[in-house]
């Protein structure tokens, strides 16, 4: 049956393998939007102060569960923020006791709340070697921070200068190239026979760099890594719909108050949680690959992380275009919801 005529699609409940839930008022406002559609999420640790230790991750996990509205089920999968002072024993304890599922590497200065991240990879080598021994994945924000390097080239340069040497030095370390944005990144992952995967965001599947700049500056499309040329967006779509187990959904839904985005130096991040599954259905439908959506959103991620896929199912239903909320209210102000720029026909059935 041609995909264009599908009006319903049932799949295992998806997970989000890269998510920012923040804390406090923001956490309470955004969490229900993820928990409505997703069973689990890899929760990013870039709070202020960052989630560095096993104890901090356990406490953050408890705050997330306490913020979950009655009647919703959701399992936060915690990560540890890698610093040059991180203790390998604490990391191993966090992983082996189930408190944390991955460590996150932010090159210092690369993105939101990354200043406590890593400047010198040699300093964290004992941690990385221990992780390789116990099979704990390292999630990477894959951009160099060198101000000489053009912002649109920072992922490709990271792959050459950091990722390839790291692969050679610690080949058993399991890596996730988070929010891959380039053909270069896709090609790198495809070249790795094992231990490497990549997450792909919602927004990088639908916007290219024109969205940020054409016709005026549009802060709600500014995220890191910054969206690239159309050729790169197409490479991401091809990877996502290919069924290749190395690529899976990590929305990187990254809410910031509108007040923090709409200013002369605005924050990076797109808030996609409320619309991700609808957008993905449009993207996969347009690629005539709706039958691959379950692999991308519900199967490939758990396989990489060594977890069972969810048993529960959701149904996406195609109908007349619907209008998602323009913004989600928090106690501290509104957060604009990502607008893909095309009508959304698909909705997750209740
Ligand atoms: N993606 C973003 O643009 N922002 C993220 C950080 C990140 O994932 O790099 C955030 O925490 O706001
Ligand atoms: Zn990042
Ligand atoms: Zn992120």
UniProtKB/TrEMBL annotation:
- Per UniProt, residues of the Amidohydrolase-related domain are 16-310
Question: According to the lineage, what is the superkingdom?
Answer: Bacteria
- Annotated binding of substrate, by residue: 20-22, 46, 141, 224, 256, 268
Show the GO cellular component annotation of the record: cytosol
Q: Which cofactor does it need?
A: Zn(2+)
Which residues are reported to carry the modification N6-carboxylysine? 104
Q: Which family does it belong to?
A: Belongs to the metallo-dependent hydrolases superfamily. DHOase family. Class II DHOase subfamily.
- HAMAP family named in the record: PyrC_classII
Q: What is this protein called?
A: Dihydroorotase
């Amino acid at each position: 049956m041609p995909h264009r005529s599908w009006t319903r699609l049932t799949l295992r409940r998806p997970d989000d393998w890269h998510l920012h839930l923040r804390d406090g008022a923001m956490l309470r406002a955004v969490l229900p939007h993820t928990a409505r559609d997703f069973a689990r999420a890899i929760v990013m640790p870039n709070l202020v102060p960052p989630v560095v230790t096993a104890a901090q991750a356990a406490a953050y996990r408890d705050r997330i569960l306490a913020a979950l509205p009655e009647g919703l089920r959701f399992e936060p999968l915690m990560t540890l923020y890698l610093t040059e002072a991180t203790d390998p024993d604490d990391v191993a304890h966090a992983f082996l006791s189930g408190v944390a599922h991955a460590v996150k590497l932010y090159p210092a200065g690369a993105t939101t709340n990354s200043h406590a991240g890593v400047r010198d990879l040699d300093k964290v080598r004992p941690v990385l070697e221990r992780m390789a021994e116990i099979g704990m994945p390292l999630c990477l924000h894959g951009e160099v921070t060198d101000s000489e390097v053009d912002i649109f080239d920072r992922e490709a340069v990271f792959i050459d200068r950091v990722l390839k040497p790291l692969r050679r030095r610690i080949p058993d370390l399991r890596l996730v190239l988070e929010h891959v944005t380039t053909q270069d990144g896709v090609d790198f992952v495809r070249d790795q026979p094992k231990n490497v995967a990549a997450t792909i965001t919602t927004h990088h599947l639908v916007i290219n760099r024109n969205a940020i700049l054409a016709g005026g500056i549009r802060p709600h499309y500014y995220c890191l890594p910054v969206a690239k040329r159309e050729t790169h967006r197409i490479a991401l779509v091809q990877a996502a719909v290919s069924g290749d187990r190395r690529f899976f959904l990590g929305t990187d839904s990254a809410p910031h108050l509108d007040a923090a985005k709409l200013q002369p130096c605005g924050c990076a991040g797109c808030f996609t949680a409320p619309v991700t599954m609808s957008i993905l259905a449009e993207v996969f439908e347009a690629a005539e690959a709706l039958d691959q959506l379950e692999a991308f959103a519900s199967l490939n991620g758990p396989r990489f992380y060594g977890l069972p896929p969810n048993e529960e199912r959701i149904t996406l239903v195609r109908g007349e275009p619907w209008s998602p909320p323009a913004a989600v209210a928090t106690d501290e102000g509104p957060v604009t919801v990502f607008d893909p720029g095309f009508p959304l026909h698909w909705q997750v059935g209740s």
